[in-house]
């Protein structure tokens, strides 16, 4: 997966679209950043913007947006229904794919430091990026709102983590901002076969983390603690907020949930728990509804969860996992669920597909025609990667067929694990199909750089060397993936469905061809690199991979011949 983070800054302006448009314009101007939603609120006088991209690009867009908001918004004049203390009130970073929370925290702190130093805006770190337990809660950081900011900036306990610690004319105008890192929040509604808000609320109180107020069964009165506050009976799901309501448009009651941390309570667990609690109360869950977008991983995890309950292999294509998730969660109960409109990575992929032609998106005939054209790319490196991907796909096919072979029911998990490994290699090699062509194009661009002055010659040579190194590393990675995939293929030839043993044999031929084909690219590109120790090392490792791949292919084909 591509490294992606989401950013959801809240700006203290919800009425003046001219101001809002100027702020969002600087975000849209950053290459590689995609604005997913702009939601202005008049009563709150606040606009929530959602955008996503690679971490570095997102942080740059956030910085530029905060800079523009500081120029355009005057907090001395701001009024609104929502708590606030700055022109950019909050700015959370949220990991979406291929990035940890710890890494996201580092990006949040680097962004905060830059905002404090370069924009002279007081910054408080909150949630996972908080510098102390007391600051984790946003409400604590923003206590007293803008009106109390002057005192808090200079206080010993509540001075900002970065930026000025006193109000002057500039900070009085900009206010402060809270920058943090938090997990993805999913707004999720569960549909019930009732119109009763009271019954929907009862289930909501059963499952939400806060739970319900404890009552005395004899009197029906609330039970209070020693401080006079109601005693709460916690619900069954952590990091979940929920309430019941009636939706007139659909004529049903729903449990409306905010899953505030899907690493703690994912969508599929929330759904199943709601089903259990509804059943206990004589109700039935008929489906569910996703509000907004969701990360791909959450949908894949749901698909795997429901397949494992069926004792079925989970090493199937992502599209099939998503289909299982949609049907199991009933996400198409009220309206069609279109993955390319609701899954963050797919929304971005659709945009990229429209803007840039990718080889792996082509039909087979078009890909073959493109390869045979007069252009030097795609060439042998892309074809080697694609052959390897087909070998991995065949390994996955044998594993999936074996997982539900009659009489092998107890072995489903063994083959599911093999299928998942094959799927990982297939995905990596498909990525290499385009990456090999990109590496070639990058090398050609380096050779096309000007070389008139001595300075230009030095810069051109450096660019050529960097591009050449990359053009070596890409096919070497293809070699490694093809080689490693042979272990799965061999296991399927040895212990997989015997009716598919020849498919494993063809997979071995394809994977070995991928190794040797990619190695040819490594060798020809290595001739142009000045770093001879690197070249000697990678050629040595390449020879070892090629030798082992040929040996594994021979062993696999021997198994295949014996079984047929």
Question: Would you mind describing this structure in some detail?
Answer:
This protein has 564 residues and is an alpha+beta fold. The protein has three domains: 4-181, Formiminotransferase-cyclodeaminase, Chain B, domain 1 (2-Layer Sandwich), CATH 3.30.990; 186-345, Formiminotransferase, C-terminal subdomain (Alpha-Beta Plaits, 2-Layer Sandwich); 357-563, Formiminotetrahydrofolate cyclodeaminase monomer, up-and-down helical bundle (Four Helix Bundle (Hemerythrin (Met), subunit A)), CATH 1.20.120. Helices cover 53% and strands 14% of the residues. It has 18 helices and 13 strands. The protein has helices at 17-28, 55-72, 101-118, 138-141, 149-153, 169-174, 197-207, 267-280, 296-309, 318-329, 339-342, 344-355, 364-372, 380-403, 412-447, 454-495, 501-526, 532-563, and strands spanning 4-7, 10-11, 33-41, 46-53, 88-97, 123-127, 177-181, 186-192, 212-213, 232-233, 240-247, 252-259, 285-291. Strands 1, 2, 3, 4, 5, 6 and 7 form a seven-stranded mixed β-sheet that branches. It has a four-stranded antiparallel β-sheet with strand order 11-12-8-13. A hairpin with a 4-residue loop joins strand 3 and strand 4. Helix 2 (55-72) packs parallel to helix 3 and helix 16 runs parallel beside helix 18. The model has no long low-confidence stretch (mean pLDDT 94).
């Amino acid at each position: 997966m591509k490294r992606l983070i989401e950013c959801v800054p809240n700006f203290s302006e919800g009425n003046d679209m001219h101001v809002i448009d100027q702020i969002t314009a600087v975000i849209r101007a950053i290459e590689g950043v995609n604005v997913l939603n702009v939601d202005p609120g008049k009563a709150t006088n606040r606009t929530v913007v959602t955008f996503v991209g690679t971490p570095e690009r997102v942080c740059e867009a956030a910085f530029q947006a905060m800079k523009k908001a500081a120029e355009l918004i005057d907090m001395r004049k701001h009024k609104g229904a929502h708590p606030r203390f700055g022109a950019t009130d909050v700015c959370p970073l949220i990991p979406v794919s291929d990035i940890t929370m710890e890494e996201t925290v580092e990006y949040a702190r680097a962004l905060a430091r830059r905002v404090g130093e370069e924009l002279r805006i007081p910054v408080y770190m909150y949630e996972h990026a908080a510098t102390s337990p007391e600051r984790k809660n946003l409400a604590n950081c923003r206590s007293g709102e803008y009106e109390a900011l002057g005192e808090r900036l200079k206080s010993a306990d509540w001075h900002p983590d970065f930026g000025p610690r006193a109000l002057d004319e500039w900070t009085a105008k900009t206010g402060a901002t809270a920058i943090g890192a938090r997990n993805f929040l999913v707004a999720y509604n569960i549909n019930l076969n009732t119109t009763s808000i009271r019954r929907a609320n009862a289930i909501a109180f059963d499952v939400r983390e806060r739970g319900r107020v404890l009552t005395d069964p004899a009197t029906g009165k609330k039970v209070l603690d020693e401080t006079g506050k109601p005693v709460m009976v916690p619900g069954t799901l952590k990091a979940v907020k929920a309430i019941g309501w009636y939706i007139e448009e659909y004529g049903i009651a729903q449990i409306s949930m905010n899953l505030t941390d899907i690493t703690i309570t994912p969508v599929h667990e929330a759904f199943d728990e709601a089903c259990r609690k509804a059943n206990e109360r004589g109700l039935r869950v008929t489906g569910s509804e996703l509000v907004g977008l969701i990360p791909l991983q959450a949908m894949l995890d749901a698909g795997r969860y429901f397949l494992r309950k069926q004792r079925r292999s989970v090493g199937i294509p992502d599209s099939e996992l998503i289909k299982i998730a949609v049907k199991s969660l009933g996400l198409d109960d009220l309206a069609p669920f279109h993955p390319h409109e609701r899954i963050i990575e797919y929304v971005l992929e659709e945009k990229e597909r429209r803007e840039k032609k990718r080889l792996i998106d082509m039909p087979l005939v078009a890909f073959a025609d493109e390869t045979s054209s007069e252009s030097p790319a795609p060439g042998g490196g892309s074809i080697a990667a694609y052959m390897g991907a087909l070998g991995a796909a065949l390994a996955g096919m044998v594993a999936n067929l074996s997982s539900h072979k009659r009489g092998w029911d107890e072995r489903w998990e063994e083959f599911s694990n093999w299928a998942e490994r094959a799927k990982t290699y297939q995905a990596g090699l498909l990525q290499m199909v385009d990456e090999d062509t990109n590496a070639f194009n990058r090398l050609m661009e380096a050779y096309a750089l000007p070389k008139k002055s001595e300075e230009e010659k030095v810069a051109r040579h450096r660019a050529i060397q960097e591009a050449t190194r990359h053009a070596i590393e890409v096919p070497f990675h293809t070699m490694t993936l093809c080689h490693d995939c042979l272990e799965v293929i061999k296991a399927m030839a040895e212990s997989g469905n015997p009716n598919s043993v020849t498919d494993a044999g063809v997979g071995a031929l394809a994977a070995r061809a991928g190794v040797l084909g990619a190695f040819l690219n490594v060798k020809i590109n290595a001739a142009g690199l000045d770093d001879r120790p690197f070249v000697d090392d990678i050629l040595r490792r390449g020879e070892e991979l090629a030798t082992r791949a040929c040996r594994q292919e021979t062993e696999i084909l021997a198994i295949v011949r014996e079984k047929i």
